Amino acid sequence: MDITSSPSGTLSRRQPSVGLVHFALAVGGFAIGTTEFAMMSLLPYFAPDLHIDEPTAGHVISAYALGVVVGAPLLAVMGARMPRRTLLILLMSLFALANAATAFAPNYGWMMVFRFLSGLPHGAYFGVASLLAASLVPPHRRTAAVGRTMMGLTIATIVGVPLANGIGLLVGWRWCFGLVAALALTTVILIAWLAPHEKADPEARIMDELGGLANGQVWLVLAIGAIGFGGVFCVYTYLASTMRAVTRTSAATIPVMLAVFGVGMTLGNLVAPRLAARGLMRAAAGVLIWSVAALSIYPVATGNIYTLALVVLAIGGGGALPIILQTRLMDVAGKAQTLAAALNHAAFNFANALGPLVGGLAIGAGWGLASTGYVGAGLAAGGLVICVVAMLLGGGREAEMPHSGERGTRSTDPRYSRAYRLPPSTATICPVMKDAPSDRRNLTVSA
pLDDT higher for 421 or 147? Predict the structure, then answer.
């Protein structure tokens, strides 16, 4: 064991690299992303097995989304005084148990219950994982840290969803949820092994978390995601149907196109930190403008598989928005860090419900499947308007932390300081945001 001396004179164990901690958190994101996005492709498999039609089976997807919306604020507030490492382990343990139970669901009623329970930890996990990931790096690298944590979710759209679809076809849909449960259990082990130990904040109070939501900027940021990202889901939900009815392509190309969308999301994830360096809200506005343009082109691109692939790739690039908004919430949420971070994912699940709903209304009105592009562009434009309002009311205080000019610098702000203690001689200082709220968590390492 490699032992080093901490500033207090106590002995501490050298910890794994920050990259390994981010990887452990991303594995959990991969598990969640796989079960969330794969449900749509598994619907034709579990519907007949549970003796229900496909429209009824679609309520199972809604049950999961409802679980996310309910669980995000509830579990975040309940766990406000817990060490983040402990809370993440508990959240992913619940996720593993609920998905394992889903694999054995005997009927439609129990399937609805287990999917609702599976959704409960979703928002809280991503919110707390993002806060933990950001706390391990200097302020100017927060968005990159959140992006690495969310990378598991985007990769799930490339690898996890096709894999789950193949498993459902070859050996049955129940094995897909067994796979997700195994991934969740793996995440529990990795977090317990790699994540830094920290003491709970003895001064944390539920009312502080709730009181932080009095800041109007928090609600504006949440509204940007809830409305603006609905455009992406509007197109994604009906993409397979559009390819069959409008593009006239074979069913075999649909998984490939869904993977193209996932590649676009991953690229957006990688680009997000560079955009954030120019200002978080300006970056969010830029992503929304990009989405408006890509979604507007979508209807005219559906006639050819190659032009469709290019536009779907561009639409997927809008996946940079959640990462940017997650970082912005860290700056405006004050003492409501955990709750606001979890609510961000509840907001995006609202977008997941809003986009298909509005798109379905357009299709039902006779506008055609391709019209989801125009509807989605309208939603993205709505998010852009909210973003501009937030920028005007926020007085421009929205920039990502500046780079200090020295690689490896660390912040003196406790919210973003690394959990692994270093000798004073190795610590340097980087600028911190003026009036940044204090998170007095005392991070320590146990031997």
Answer: 147
